[in-house]
């Protein structure tokens, strides 16, 4: 499964990058395949391991912010591995033709 999620601290002012970095650090240290862009962090793995990482990433922000907003989208597709890269590769292949 692939989960794309964003964690936004609320009540800390306009500069939230420092808080978001705490969440991304948890994801990167998990060892699971992941990618971060301007809007979301995507992570790939089995349900329990991915959700555990998301929960810990949220907790890292929650430890320093009075309120946290989470947006999460999941692609649950049994039997697919390396979807994080293969889905992008498929689109790139179509763009080349």
From TrEMBL:
Gene3D superfamilies noted in UniProt: 3.30.70.930
- The residues covered by the Thiamine-binding protein domain are 3-92
Family matches, as Pfam families: Thiamine_BP
- One Gene Ontology term, aspect cellular component: cytosol
Entry similarity comment: Belongs to the UPF0045 family.
Name of this chain's protein = Thiamine-binding protein
Biological source species: Streptomyces cinereoruber
